[in-house]
């Protein structure tokens, strides 16, 4: 690992933030905190084999493609973060123990061991903070323009975690605000795995998790508690099982389903 006491990203490296449809007219505002798997050049390979970055520990598989498809179909603004969650987790407070995790699932991350305060600060200031500030700017602009906002944070989860199978196809995660979760849950519970998704379970009734496979809290999450709840926005985190959206076909099919359901409940919250 190459240490970078003063800075992290070289001038020619990609900006951590990508924005889609900044002038989207939909009330839905989409985020994708774990959209990418890039590593800053100065961090080398973090001491892990390249295949580890292909797994869920490196990023939310399928989430970026699904988010882009949803943004297109809904005419919604979407923002995504393109560096790996192993560099820093943009859905965590910067003082969280796993902000730059030492172990993810069962994989140790040597490049995150014994980080100095300056090294942690570089990750926070050059990746985490620009992403959070970009979200805040976009939300501020919508408020100033009188544009209503329903915040939806898009994620994906593994079919199996530490040997335990997860039965859910999709999970709805919320903290204090359960309004959007309560609105969309019964619709999902009567839906099916999209027929045209190309998945072996296509056509089966959806198994919907209620704060599963994770529970959303102030300590373990950032986007919904800070950008959603603290602003008083209707907000929700949606988790889709990653094997369902690993392919472009699956992403497209799920985007159609979410567009249909989100449009159906939209009128309950905005005129």
From TrEMBL:
Keyword match Glycoprotein: no
- What Gene Ontology molecular-function terms does this entry list? hydrolase activity
Query: Which InterPro entries does this entry report, sorted A to Z?
Result: N-FG_amidohydro, UCP029730
Q: Which domain of life is it from?
A: Bacteria
Query: According to the UniProt entry, where is the signal peptide?
Result: none
* Keywords attached to this entry: Hydrolase
- Cite the residue spans of the region called Disordered: 1-23
Which protein are we looking at? N-formylglutamate amidohydrolase
